[in-house]
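Onboarding guide, step 5: your first structure request.
Type a short instruction followed by the sequence, for example:

Predict the 3D structure of this protein.
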Amino acid sequence: MDKIETLNGLFGADVSVRDGRVTVNRDASLSSAAMDQLVRAAVFGDADEKEHARWLIWELGQAVGVRPASIQDLYMARGRGETHGYTVPAINVRGMAYDTARSIFRTANTLHAGAFILEIARSEIAYTDQRPAEYVAVVLAAAMREGFRGPVFIQGDHFQVSAKKYAVDPATEVDAVKSLAREAIAAGFYNIDVDTSTLVDISKSTLDEQQRLNYEVGAEILQTIRALEPEGVTISIGGEIGEVGTHNSTVDELRTYMDGLIRSVPKGVAGLSKISVQSGTSHGGVVLADGSIADVKLDLDTLERLSKVARDEYGLSGAVQHGASTLPDSAFHNFPKRETAEIHLATNFQNMLFDHMPAELRQSIYAWLAENAKDERKPSDTDEQFFYKTRKKALGPFKRQIWDVPGEIKAALAKVYDDKFTFLFNQLAIGGTADVVAKFVAAPVIHRADPTVAAAVAAAPDDADLSD
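The system replies with structure tokens like these:
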């Protein structure tokens, strides 16, 4: 209990924790270094510390208005034409998550931005060693540390059905995605991208046959998510019609998928808020032999056309562009002009992290990859290609070392992150969107039971008196 009492006392008299309730007496205290200690316990503490720290972060957020929220109502308003002119960035926070998220919220405060998402994919949860409960705690702590106030959009990206695993055992693979959704929603993920596009079979003779598994399995997972929603929350769910990195999507594919999905979902059950498409990008970019990234032929006309059909015919917010972080800087202003609903940004921030970490740490990571990821190396890979493609797999095993890089490294990285997020938020025109978010999005108060109190009750004899 000494460790729990220490966590409860981190903010002194400014925060009161009593009988399973948290009261914030001085809001500004949450922006202090005490939050750094609390979030560290949520990530690296023992089991009891982690559980209690995560609960305390959640309840602090509930108290001051930093709450996980669904972007559903904003996206539905966009589908009705009531808001437009910006593209929501969905940022995959992988390594050094707390510091990265702090930069995002710091930038949002400066630009009065509210329409942005922090996300993590099914695969990233595994290789970065960030389960949903940890991820939510880190994101909310970062928001409060920077004095951000407002709804926080946390998203499960690519909750993806593996085509290989599905071919062997369909039920088990679909159940694995449902199980992850259950864990994520309980943690505070109120936005989920369901990716069953891996099941599209272009060898079939008609578009409906090609997309059938995509929309039928997607509809099944969607209904599971709807059944798990907390009271007052309609989770924003995205679908996907084309695997990123393959052929560009078409309007006919979009219509075929959407019509099939609508047929497969019972009436009265809310459908999708957006649709992910392929328009020329690939996740992480195409790595050349020298480690540089090949130029991307982005089909903006296709993206614009698909967004318009998604809004006009199906009431969605529009199309989603994946694999965008490695695009040239000159590309980003096009997305709001083409009314792209959302773009996903991941790999470039990871690149910046590796570029700025101490050389000895980077070399330790590469030595680890040379042994532990050697099976992923193709005979044609140069060292640059191999390490670029695999180094994300070291983010979990080296998580503590990356969190603990020297302060001067963190400061330098914070500067480049702040500059990049400022550039992207301006190019995507989300400055000032805190007001439109406040207009359309309400984040309900959802309290959780204090795990320490629950444990004490469970451990007490049946005739014990636990009252004061």
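Each response can be followed by summary notes, for example: The chain has three domains: 2-66+448-459, 68-347+409-440, 358-404.
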